[in-house]
Amino acid sequence: MSFLKQWLLILLLIIPTLVSSQTFSPNLNLSDATQVHILTTNRGDIFIGRVVEIIDTRVSFLANGDIPIEFQFNEINKITVKGEGFLPHSDGDEKELALPGRPVQEPFNTQLMFLTATAFSLDRGKSLYSNVDVLWNSIDIGVTDNFQAGFGVLLPYMAIPRAKFTFDILDKVHLGAGINVFTVYDFYFNDFNMAFHPFAVTTFGEPNLFVNITGGYILPVGFIEDRFMVAGLG
Question: Are β-strands 86-88 and 228-233 bridged in parallel, bridged antiparallel, or unpaired?
């Protein structure tokens, strides 16, 4: 099977699940009774309390200390830990914590799987885990304030190391460049295939509201005829 056919098959598998992606804070610790968790739904509702347990694709949440609520993964946008950076007001807005030194950054998704990367980076030392149900799982780490590296796994047969460098031109204009390395296991031929995806990205806006333009090439190793350009706007 050519790499191009494998690529199209992967897209067909994951596109129906993109709307159900969630971001869970890497600092989430269910055994720490002192933690306060902030759960934001896809509708924009914000709940403050504690995650009691996570089983399969279900989250048991105790809101305000005594109100049990059950959430499915596809209802959740993100779960963060109080003190990571931004906390909701009682009116639902978000407020930055007044902390000494560099403000603590709230984990936000700087990349939608491997389909499109933004020109935002995690702060140095920050990490972010994200997933799409059980199919896609990834971890990204801020190596510096402008460079992050990560690794993703798309079940059952793709692994993607990735890295990108970003910098700000203006407050709401951001540029970036990076690379994804696709490694695909071919069950039919019992073989591994690899492709490089260098890309450039321009992002207009802020992490909670932006327009993203990306462009790059898919360069399969050993499949010269399958090289093609990809671009995105969203």
Answer: unpaired
Domains of the chain with CATH codes: 1-18+108-234 (no CATH), 27-106 (2.30.30)
Cα distances (Å, whole numbers) of residue 4 to 173, 192, 219: 33, 14, 10
> CA angle, 139 as apex, 170 and 125 as ends, to 5°?
60
Nearest to 21 by CA among 65, 64, 79: 79
pTM > 0.70: no
Predicted confidence (pLDDT) at residue 21 exceeds the cutoff of 90: no
Name every residue whose Cβ is closer than 8 Å to that of residue 9 and which is 6 or more positions away in sequence: none
Tokens encoding 44:
């924009």
Q: Parallel, antiparallel, or unpaired: how do β-strands 116-117 and 111-112 relate?
A: antiparallel
Instruction: Indicate whether 23 pLDDT > 60.
Output: yes
For residue 100, the 8-state DSSP code is S
Neighbours of 53 (CB within 10 A): 9
Model confidence pLDDT, tens digit, residues 94-117: 333 333 333 334 445 555 555 567
- Rounded to whole angstroms, the Cα distance separating 234 from 215 reads 12
Contact 116, 108 (CB under 8 A): no
Q: Which pair of tokens denotes residue 115?
A: 């389909």
